[in-house]
Amino acid sequence: MKKAKLIVFVLLIAAILILDRRFGWSEYLGNLENLSFLRELVQQNLWQAMLWYVLLTVVGCVVLALPGATFALFAGMLFGPWLGILLCLIATTLGACAAFVVGRFFLRDSLKPLAEKNPYLKKLLFEQNSNSETVVLMITRLVPLFPYNLQNFAYGITDIHFWKYTICTFVFMLPGVSFFTIGAAGITATEGRVWYFVAAGVLFVLVMLLGIAVKRHYLGKDAGKKERGDKVS
Question: Are the C-beta atoms of residues 148 and 71 closer than 8 Å to each other?
């Protein structure tokens, strides 16, 4: 059963990649000009435009390998900074949760035993320590150590509870989503464009500094302890 789920998942991914290469879905959704109908829809029916954006973002998170920043950039250009931030957070969190569920169903049984063989991963992700789970989520959301889409599937393999994952994802993505969305809103703004870019730049610096500081404090400390333990043994 474990291998069957993994095989099904691999086949689904292969099929999606082949179809994506054939029909160019990622390129199409990755180009805002192809989504010009959303711009018109924002003026005609804001609620419908919001629903379309959320739907396309969830599909992009789960099915297509679009960079996480893409969704924030589109949100800022289409909906402005404040509504854009809220919509992007909701949509990307829903997409992250959907990918998490897929990873937990298809991959956990097969890949968790392999991941637990690595003592560092086991300590961070599989020991019953809620602080470790929270720190790892914070670091990977603030400083993308590996692609956003892969993160979402990978967390499904861990023991983290679904609702904790959901809440932490929403909270820790807020700074990054904010600077991308505000910066994108500045591109289409007719007034105060400079202030949008200044705000985005300040947020970017703060997010990078915070992410690096958290990474060094927690992962650096754990690595130092492990190294000292190896020397003693």
Answer: no
**Total tally of structural domains belonging to the chain:** 1
> Which structural domain range is residue 85 located in?
2-232
Cα separation, 136 vs 218, whole angstroms: 9
pLDDT tens per residue, the chain (233 residues)?
Answer: 667 777 777 788 788 778 777 777 677 666 667 667 788 888 889 999 999 999 988 888 888 767 778 888 889 988 988 899 999 999 999 999 998 998 888 878 777 776 666 665 666 666 666 567 788 888 888 766 567 778 888 888 888 889 999 999 999 888 888 888 888 888 777 777 788 788 878 877 887 787 777 667 666 655 444 444 444 44
What single-letter amino acid sits at 61? C
pTM of the predicted protein model = 0.78
Is residue 31 helix, strand or coil? coil
